[in-house]
Amino acid sequence: xxxxxxxxxxxxxxxxxxxxxxxxxxxxxxxxxxxxxxxxxxxxxxxxxxxxxxxxxxxxxxxxxxxxxxxxxxxxxxxxxxxxxxxxxxxxxxxxxxxxxxxxxxxxxxxxxxxxxxxxxxxxxxxxxxxxxxxxxxxxxxxxxxxxxxxxxxxxxxxxxxxxxxxxxxxxxxxxxxxxxxxxxxxxxxxxxxxxxxxxxxxxxxxxxxxxxxxxxxxxxxxxxxxxxxxxxxxxxxxxxxxxxxxxxxxxxxxxxxxxxxxxxxxxxxxxxxxxxxxxxxxxxxxxxxxxxxxxxxxxxxxxxxxxxxxxxxxxxxxxxxxxxxxxxxxxxxxxxxxxxxxxxxxxxxxxxxxxxxxxxxxxxxxxxxxxxxxxxxxxxxxxxxxxxxxxxxxxxxxxxxxxxxxxxxxxxxxxxxxxxxxxxxxxxxxxxxxxxxxxxxxxxxxxxxxxxxxxxxxxxxxxxxxxxxxxxxxxxxxxxxxxxxxxxxxxxxxxxxxxxxxxxxxxxxxxxxxxxxxxxxxxxxxxxxxxxxxxxxxxxxxxxxxxxxxxxxxxxxxxxxxxxxxxxxxxxxxxxxxxxxxxxxxxxxxxxxxxxxxxxxxxxxxxxxxxxxxxxxxxxxxxxxxxxxxxxxxxx
Length: 637
Ligand code: SF4
Known about the structure:
Shape: globular
Largest sheet: 8 strands, parallel
Helix content: 25-40%
Strand content: 15-25%
Number of strands: 25
CATH topology of the largest domain: TIM Barrel
CATH architecture of the largest domain: Alpha-Beta Barrel
Number of domains: 3
Bound molecules: iron/sulfur cluster
């Protein structure tokens, strides 16, 4: 099969895009990846907006965006630009405009870049209703878009202003949704309509984004737009971001997962990490992600001759095994080899609770622990196994599986028919001999390791080789880090492993780090990576916007309260969004939503339907919980 992928799958190489000049810096071409953020001040409050921009620039941000809601915001941009210039802050500023093409025309005169959203530039805001558009009606609407966009392009040309065509999953227009639904295909078509107009107008100063709060959707959307642009001879640079990633460790992991997945493919020319925190706190996260890919060796990994891999759709690898490993969702392996003996507290750290003479698993119970001792002073929970290396003198306990090196496996496989053995393998060890043996042995769980400088591509290629040889064994993705800081390890691991999980690869993950052996920390990072990629949902998924000038409440505080009271509702996705304008659409597939409606007023949503309107903010979290209870979705902690 000839796979048409315009970017590199087997070595690290930045995908070639057109350089787009934005003020004093360049996005795309051979330029380094640009790091940007967004102010959450009211834009017309010039003093606060300038102060926050300086804070972000001082933290290392290279470009800053402001929301433009009213004419006074658009006009304030001129003053903000002047104030920043006066103090030597010449970095580009960007206007973020929704629902009002006229405001984009004004802002384009004062700033270096304008972001518009195809979902609401001209088309009506999606009401999530099914409507029929005849071809005539469709083309009429498209002509209206073209007329307004050409007007904006002319202003941009005159003022040397760049444009971002910024599509978001969840804010597609009714017109696009009527034909494509709220899908990746719809996101791509909505974007391409605008890009085709830009191309027709010979306007090259365009950057493209297709964001989503769902990492799988986001990764697939960017890959698809790259493929479609390539076919239409377009080379616009990409702005990457996961929307509504939330805060804390989960927000950092979700951002690193989505952005990292694409940077692994060489895609992405500028990034924004969106956190529901002070925007300057986004910068170190973005820096860590970029640093992880900086100076990456371009050594290629081995390619299969027959590539059975589709990066453009969301799919799951098929498993066939005679081992005990469950294949419903990826398992978690925790390394306890540093322990000389294993006690009850060590099992608790893996997500279990002792109740009389039984271990009760939590939603986040790890299934495996790697032990290097036979001194285990408690019994193993049901469904849990200790993994041990074959040289260990005796089995740690009854619930075990041995781990073999490739050499041990080659020696032993004929002598013993173990029901389950785990075997370390790397891509270069998947030789014809090994393929032949594995084809005859369905009792193996593969522990996939890599030492390749582009480890994700190397491990992905392993899965492609397995597909080529029709090997359906379960595979645990193992990555080893040497990091003193847990957040740095989390960001790297998310960027490395998420692409494989979003591709539907992997039946478990195993992270090691000689500096971080605390099982609780590694356990949290592992489960957050699985959560971020929706490979395994074990806690409530919070979809929270980073806030902007439209937010009229303390979203950080509210998010913390909502999290605290609902984090055990693992079966739900809960949105906490700053405004009614974009919030309901952009919280995408949230089951419930807390959306800022006006000062001290909140509206609550069940799915896409507003069910409680303008309730006082003071008791809105109580009302949200009441709403969840009324709908029968509440469970006690
Ligand atoms: S949803 Fe949040 S970030 Fe988006 S426009 Fe509304 S307040 Fe701003």
